[in-house]
Each structure stands twice: as structure tokens, then as C-alpha cells.
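Late entry, written up from scratch paper. The run itself happened at the end of the previous shift, but nothing got recorded in the book at the time, so transcribing now.
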Amino acid sequence: MFIHSVTLDADKCMGCATCIRHCPMEAIRVRNGKAFILSERCIDCGECIRVCPHKAKKAVFDKWEDNAGKFKYRVALPAPTLYGQFNNLDDVDYVLTGLKRLGFDMVFEVSRAAEIVSDYTRKLITSGELKTPVISSACPVVVRLIRARFPHLCDHVLPILAPIHLAAAIARREAMESTGLPSGDIGIFFISPCPAKSTDVRMPVGLEKSDVDCVISIADIYKDLLKQMNKVTTPEMLSHSGLVGIGWATSGGESAGLLEEKYLAADGIDQVIKILEELEDEKLRDLEFIELNACPGGCVGGAAVVENPFVAKARIQLLRKYLPVSRNKFTGRDTKGTEIGWTSSLEYVPDAPLSDDMTEAVKKLQHIEELTKTLPGLDCGACGAPTCHALAEDIVRGKAHRTDCLFILKARLEELFGEVRGGIAPKTGDKEQ
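Output as recorded:
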């Protein structure tokens, strides 16, 4: 069973095929004039949301107003990306105070957990316990991409909780200690820049269950939060993180926090795939750490943000000038009783098999390769599949036909037309054209 936060509004879809050409997993098809998403392939990267000219793709998030009343005590987990959405912000406490005025009882910065993760990662790399180059596990899209397409790199992925999950676990423990309430009465709300985080909360990788209860998009909460921030004259002193943690909002921020020279940071799903392909070909073995973000510019480029990612990145850089380097350290095997490492290893999750019988699957694979050679090789997408190879696979799976290819259909129609013309004798007095 797959749970996704990227969905399709069929009523808005015009079948233009723009999305199928941009999906990195070839997870979208257009049939009968409408696009649909192959659930087993989607990694919730949000690329289709960005490129759809008809706004037919959308991200599904929880609504603050629908869930606030379900808990006696509400904790906000703002992603550091949130700070880059506001103009002329020189103190993150305005944002954190605004969140409390919005109705949250407590605020716990995800950037605090990011600093703990950075410190622990630095210790692990120094100890030599990890297989290098180490690939960051912070971006859930990248982790799912590796799990599906690059299984040989699974053991390179950093086996540490992403800051969102670590922050939620620590925040829940602190809230229970300070209020005396049971866990069920405490709601943890993550304020997210992208739909992939929402999916990761519902189907986390590396742990059995996330402590996050609801995921709210930055875009949904932005206007109400801004109104509350504008009412703040003297903010509460709530921030407990430095430039290392807040720097995680942009590409290269996590790497910079490691104080490591042999690292690479790349962003944008196309560049991420290229880096993983080079790593799989053993071309980047001299590096110690690789930070990959599926969104352009890092989390500031998520599909659920308000501000232009380049503007948001510039604001984050300016904001960091007023902050200490770091205010959080890893103090032991766990943090306040919270396990920081994954509880399960990353394993290859293959696509739906061609057949449960290995012999039959091999035959079908050979058939796909042979069929691909008979197709034009233009990868135009006019057939509703992203590539000719994808169309061949769909045909073998019984979900498409060769004549879905417009070029083959045209050739077939011309052939039939020729047969019809050749089989009809001309009438008396008519001249054959």
C-alpha cells in the first residue's frame, strides 16, 4: 500500500502531457485525455505540481483549523524554510511568537534538531563508522529515489533521523514533561515546505512511526501567520538555534554545518539523478559527504512555499548574520531519551514486477526491449507515456497498444487506406488518381 501527498484533479487536467515529460520516475501516464499517477512509482517530489500549466496537480496537507481542536496541547514545528518567506525579518522570534498567537501552545524549531543531526553526523564521519561517501537522509524524495532506482547506494545513506522526526520526538517528550499530559493529548504540527514531508510522516523511512501528527503547508498558514506577526511589538525569546540549523533551509547548508571540506551539494531532481548515477559508477569516491535536495535551491524551493526560492535564500543568508554558529549539540547515544538513529535499514523497493514467475518476467523484459526497437525512439510523449521504452513496457503489461504511438497509427492508417484503394475497381469513365 502506498500513501501519497501529490494528487491529481482530473477535472482540471487537459491531457497536455507536460507532467509526463518532467516526472523523474516515469510515474505519470495520459490515457483517454487525462493524466493519472502510478502510485507504486511516485516519490512525491512535486515536479508535476511545478510544471502543470492547468494546476491539475496538487499537494494534500492537513488543515490547521480542522485539527487544532483535536488536541489539548499543540506544538508547532516550523521548518527553517519558513523564515525565508518574510521580508525584512531580522529576528526569528517574530515568527515563533506569531505561531503562538496563532494558537500553538509551544514552538520547537526544526533547526534545533538539525544542529543535533549535524553534530552527530560529524562525529560519525570522523569515527569512520559510515560507508563513504555518506549521502544525507534529510530529503525524503532523495531517500525514496535511491530506494527505488539506486539500490546499490542504500548502504551509503546516512542512517540518522531527519530533523523533522527528531524534532517531533524531542518536542513531544518536552511537552509531556512540562504539562503532565499523556502523549495522545499533545498534537505535533510540522509546518512544511513540500508534499514529500507529508508523505514521509505517514510512511516514514528508517523508523516505525513518526511523532508528527499533522503536516501543514507553509502556503496554507502564511497569511494568517503574517497577520499575527504584524501585531507583535516585542517578541518572546523563543529561538534556540543558530546559523547552522537555519542554514539547512538552503542547498549546501547541511554540508556547511559539518565543517567538512570533502563534500558535494546538489539540488534539483535532474541534477540529483546525475550525481547518483556518477556515484553508482564510482566516479565520486574521493568525497566524504553528499548533500542532495530534490527541490531547486534546497527546501526553499519546495512546492508548498510562498516566496521565490532565490529571494528566500537571500533572506536566509541575511538572517544568519545575526545568529550564533550553533546552540545545540549531540550529547550521547540518544537525546533526552530519544533515539537518533534509524530503527530499520534502507532496503530496495522494486517497481511492480512484470510477473511473479522469474522466467516469465525475463521473457517479458526481452519483449519490452524488442518492442522498443520497433518504436520511433523520439520520446515525444504524444502516446501518453514519457518514453518509447515506457510505452513498450505498458504494452507488455497490457495497459497500452502499439497504435497509441501516433507515428505507428499514421503508418497503419496509410497502409489500410492503400489497401482499400487498391481493392476498389475504378468506375467506368473515372480516371485513377
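The first helix runs from residue 18 to 22.
(Scratch paper discarded after transcription.)
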